[in-house]
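Q: Please design a sequence for this.
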């Protein structure tokens, strides 16, 4: 040991390596190789952005159009759910929803944000609907607040109970209250984007029934 301490670090390692048997060398090499693989995988996982749902329940035409826009923006994305769900980096979700909305996307009516990962079977249907309504209002509010002129936002969605007769069915409605930064009004394009975003997120909600 004293002799090894007198040697330089590389020489000492070489001396120890030479003293190992073939079986011991194979074990050390396997351990080092495994450590390299694990370290590489950990680095790849750490560098990969956390993905979140941009839209779900998309028609194939909408999915293709949105994917094309994401390619143009050089935004990484992945498709799931038979191509009807698009996921993007979580920190870009709200900004991208607004960008797509100002361009009239998606066009295929009601889409989803996958707000619930699992169903709570202990909830009544009424409670589930109320929770969904609160969740969609919160998700829309967070998205709209990404607009630079918007200081704060409040979204209220009214989803009527379904009736047997279509003639008696009340329409879905929504109101969006915005507090804007001084001297920073919304453009017509941004207002249209907010209306499109809200109407496409709620089933049966027509753009003309969204009050901003």
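A: Design:
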């Amino acid at each position: 040991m004293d002799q090894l301490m007198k040697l330089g670090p590389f020489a000492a390692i070489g001396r120890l390596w030479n003293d190992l048997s073939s079986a011991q060398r194979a074990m050390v090499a396997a351990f080092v190789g495994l450590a390299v693989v694990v370290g590489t995988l950990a680095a790849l996982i750490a560098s990969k952005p956390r993905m979140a749902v941009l839209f779900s329940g998309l028609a194939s035409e909408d999915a293709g159009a949105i994917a094309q826009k994401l390619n143009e923006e050089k935004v990484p994305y992945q498709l799931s759910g038979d191509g009807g769900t698009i996921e993007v980096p979580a920190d870009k979700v709200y900004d991208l929803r607004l960008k797509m909305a100002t361009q009239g996307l998606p066009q295929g009516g009601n889409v989803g944000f996958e707000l619930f990962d699992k169903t709570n079977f202990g909830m009544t249907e009424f409670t589930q609907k109320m929770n969904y309504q609160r969740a969609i209002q919160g998700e829309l509010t967070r998205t709209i607040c990404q607009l630079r002129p918007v200081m704060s936002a409040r979204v209220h969605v009214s989803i009527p109970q379904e009736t047997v007769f279509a003639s008696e069915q009340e329409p879905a409605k929504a109101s969006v209250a915005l507090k804007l930064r001084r001297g920073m009004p919304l453009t017509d394009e941004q207002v249209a984007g907010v209306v499109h975003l809200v109407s496409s997120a709620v089933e049966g909600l027509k753009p003309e029934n969204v009050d901003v």
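Q: Thanks. Anything notable?
A: The chain has seven helices and six strands. Helices lie at 2-6, 9-19, 22-47, 60-72, 93-102, 125-144, 188-201.
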